[in-house]
């Protein structure tokens, strides 16, 4: 077995273990409530050591938000990957529209039990807000780097774009708790997103268009 093959096998095993722990934890949380389940119980149910759980998920809350890394990074990554001549708003709008067309876990809960658990837990809501704040900060840093502007403008633009993302996520949670089916939620998210981005377009619709051209021409 080559070193590369061995590393790939280890990485795959880690991913599978992480997913198993997350799935087991989610099942226990939805059955008993987030606050009523311990890390030790999760480890026992998943058949792993307690340290294995904490190595994969240092925060208990991230057993619920197992895509925490993606939630934090996706705004900045989407803007960074946009085509030359594309504004930051347009890049995020297109990406969001694509997600609503096929469904995506970063849109918000379309599982009623999961959504209800999050909405009823102040701890989980606080962690969700923290993740969205971190996503805003990463986006602001990206825009500041592209524009060469270390003032308030990139932060203001990031705050508005991140607010749309945060509000849409909560919209998905509420619709799920209300009992709407996933196709209905996705259609509602697509329409609501268009409305939200349209409100921002007159003020920041072109922001970052020239930055993208300059960044990608180097």
UniProtKB/TrEMBL annotation:
Signal peptide: none annotated. Pfam families: TetR_N (PF00440). It comes from the Bacteria. Residues 38-57 bind DNA. InterPro entries: Homeodomain-like_sf, HTH-type_TetR-like_transc_reg, HTH_TetR. PANTHER family: HTH-TYPE TRANSCRIPTIONAL REGULATOR BETI (PTHR30055:SF234), HTH-TYPE TRANSCRIPTIONAL REGULATOR RUTR (PTHR30055). This is TetR family transcriptional regulator. It comes from Amycolatopsis minnesotensis.
């Amino acid at each position: 077995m080559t070193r590369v093959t061995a590393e790939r096998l280890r990485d795959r095993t880690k991913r599978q273990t992480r997913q198993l722990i997350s799935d087991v934890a989610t099942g226990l949380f939805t059955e008993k409530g987030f606050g009523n389940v311990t890390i030790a119980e999760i480890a026992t149910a998943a058949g792993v050591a307690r340290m294995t759980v904490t190595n994969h998920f240092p925060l208990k809350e991230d057993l619920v938000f197992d895509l925490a890394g993606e939630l934090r990074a996706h705004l900045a990554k989407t803007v960074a990957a946009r085509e030359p001549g594309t504004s930051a708003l347009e890049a995020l709008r297109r990406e969001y529209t694509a997600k609503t067309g096929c469904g995506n876990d970063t849109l918000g809960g379309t599982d009623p039990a999961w959504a209800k658990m999050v909405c009823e837990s102040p701890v989980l809501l606080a962690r969700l807000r923290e993740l969205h704040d971190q996503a805003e900060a990463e986006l602001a840093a990206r825009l500041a780097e592209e524009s060469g502007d270390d003032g308030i403008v990139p932060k203001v633009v990031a705050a508005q774009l991140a607010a749309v993302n945060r509000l849409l996520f909560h919209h998905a949670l509420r619709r799920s708790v209300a009992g709407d089916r996933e196709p209905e939620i996705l259609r509602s998210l697509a329409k609501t997103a268009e409305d939200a981005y349209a409100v921002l377009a007159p003020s920041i619709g072109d922001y970052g268009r020239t930055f993208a051209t300059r960044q990608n021409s180097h």
